[in-house]
Design a protein that fits this description.
The chain is an alpha/beta fold. It is 42% helix and 14% strand. A hairpin with a 2-residue loop joins strand 6 and strand 7.
C-alpha cells in the first residue's frame, strides 16, 4: 500500500467549483494587486484569531521579516528564539543584520523552554539585555508554546514577543484561565498559507495578526516600500503584498478549517491507539498534548511527530514499504553552516540536537484513511521486530 505524506487532491476536488469561482472573480475584476479580497481576508482572519487586525503578506517568512522591521530591528540588536524550527524563524533575524540568540527546547514538547528564556535574560549583562529587541516564540507542529510564563518573562523585561504561528493557526492555550488562540497574545502573530499547512493556498502567502492599531499601520506602510502616497517613501520597507488570488482561495477554505482540524485530531488519536496496541514504547513515543483537553484545539497537528529510536533506519525501511515520512528538522539552528560564525558548537543545546536525531513526522492530512494508518503502524512494528531478531 502506498501512503503519501500529503495528498492535496481530495481537498481540491471537494472545493473545486468554489475555488475556480473565487479565482475567476479575481481575474475578471482586474484587481491583481491588493484590493477587496485582501481586505476581506484580513477581517476574517482577525475575527478567527481574536485580534483587532490582520495584515496580509507574501509569505510566512515575510510575516516574520516584516514584524521585525516594524520593530526597527537591525545591526547590533539581539533576538532570542528557539533553536529548533523551520529556518525562516532564525534566517529573518540575520537578514536584518541582527544577531539571533538560540535557546534550547523543552524536550517534552519541542517548544521554547520557558526556564531557558528566563535564565538567559537573567544571566545577561545590563548592556546586552538592552540589546534584546524581540523574542520569537514558535508554536511548533501545531501546538501552542507555554505562553503564560513566556509572556510574563517578556513583560518583566519589556521585550516585544513575536509568535511564529506558521504551523498552528487555530491552536489554543489558556491564558489567565481563558482560552486564547495563537497569534492573539504576542505583539505580532505570524502565519503561513504554504500549501501544506492546515490552511494552505495554491501558492505562497501569509498574514500577520496584531492588536495595536499603530503597529498595524506600520506593517501596512512597510508592506508597500514604506510609501503612504505613490512614489513618496517615508521609511524603507519592501514588497510584502499578499496576492489577491491566494487571498480568494484562503477565503474559500477558511470556513472549513475547524472541520479539518478535527479530522487531523481524530487521525492523531487513532495513531495513538495503534501505537499503544502495538506496544512500541519506549522505542516509539507519540506526541504529547501540553494543553487543557477541554479546549477546542489544544493541538491542530499540522504535523504528527513521533520520537523514534534508529530514526534514519526506520525511515529508510518505511520508504521501501512506500510509506512517506519527513524529518522536521534534521539540523538545529546552532549547527547550521550559515551560523558557524556564532561559534555555538555541538553539544551546547542538547535537547534540540536530540530532537533533530529522533523526530519523525507521519502522514496526518484530513483525508488519510484508517487503512493507511493501520498499514503504516504495522510497518513500524515490523521494523522493530526485525531489529530484535537480527
Amino acid at each position: 500500500m502506498k501512503v503519501p505524506l500529503l495528498d492535496l487532491k481530495p481537498q481540491l476536488e471537494s472545493l473545486h467549483g468554489e475555488i475556480l469561482e473565487a479565482v475567476t472573480r479575481v481575474v475578471e475584476s482586474t484587481r491583481y494587486i491588493m484590493g477587496p479580497e485582501i481586505e476581506n481576508l484580513e477581517k476574517e482572519i482577525a475575527e478567527y484569531c481574536g485580534t483587532a487586525d490582520a495584515v496580509g503578506v507574501s509569505s510566512g517568512t515575510d510575516a516574520l521579516l516584516l514584524s521585525l522591521m516594524a520593530l526597527d530591528i537591525g545591526p547590533g540588536d539581539l533576538v532570542l528564539t528557539t533553536d529548533f524550527s523551520f529556518f525562516a524563524t532564525a534566517g529573518v533575524i540575520s537578514r536584518l543584520n541582527a544577531t539571533p540568540v538560540f535557546l534550547d527546547i523543552n524536550p517534552e514538547n519541542w517548544n521554547l523552554d520557558t526556564v531557558q528564556l528566563e535564565q538567559k535574560l537573567e544571566s545577561m549583562s545590563s548592556d546586552d539585555r538592552k540589546r534584546v529587541k524581540a523574542i520569537i516564540v514558535v508554536h511548533l507542529y501545531g501546538q501552542s508554546a507555554e505562553m503564560k510564563p513566556l509572556l510574563d518573562c517578556a513583560e518583566k523585561y519589556g521585550i516585544p514577543m513575536i509568535e511564529d504561528a506558521a504551523q498552528a493557526i487555530g491552536a489554543e492555550c489558556r491564558l489567565n484561565g481563558s482560552p486564547r488562540k495563537v497569534g492573539s497574545m504576542g505583539t505580532f502573530g505570524c502565519f503561513s498559507f504554504f500549501p501544506s499547512k492546515n490552511l494552505g493556498g495554491i501558492g505562497d502567502g501569509g498574514i500577520i495578526t496584531v492588536q495595536d492599531p499603530e503597529l498595524a499601520s506600520v506593517l501596512r506602510l512597510k508592506r508597500v516600500h514604506g510609501g503612504e502616497k505613490k512614489y513618496y517613501h517615508r521609511v524603507i520597507g519592501g514588497n510584502f503584498r499578499l496576492d489577491p488570488i491566494q487571498a480568494a482561495v484562503i477565503r474559500v477554505k477558511l470556513p472549513h478549517l475547524n472541520s479539518w482540524h478535527r479530522k487531523r485530531r481524530e487521525n492523531a488519536l487513532y495513531y495513538n491507539q495503534l501505537f499503544e496496541k502495538a506496544g512500541l514504547a519506549p522505542k516509539v513515543l507519540t506526541p504529547p498534548e501540553l494543553h487543557d483537553s477541554e479546549l477546542n484545539f489544544p493541538h491542530i497537528y499540522n504535523q504528527y511527530v513521533i520520537r523514534a529510536e534508529q530514526r534514519d533506519e526506520l525511515r529508510e525501511f518505511l520508504l521501501e514499504s512506500e510509506c512517506a515520512t519527513e524529518v522536521y528538522y534534521p539540523v538545529p539552528f546552532h549547527l547550521q553552516e550559515c551560523f558557524s560564525d556564532l561559534e555555538w558548537g555541538a553539544g551546547t543545546l542538547k535537547h534540540s540536537e536530540h530532537a533533530a536525531n529522533t523526530v519523525l513526522a507521519l502522514p496526518i492530512f484530513p483525508e488519510l484513511t484508517r487503512e493507511m494508518q493501520d498499514y503504516l503502524v504495522e510497518q513500524i512494528r515490523l521494523f522493530y521486530q526485525n531489529q530484535l531478531s537480527n
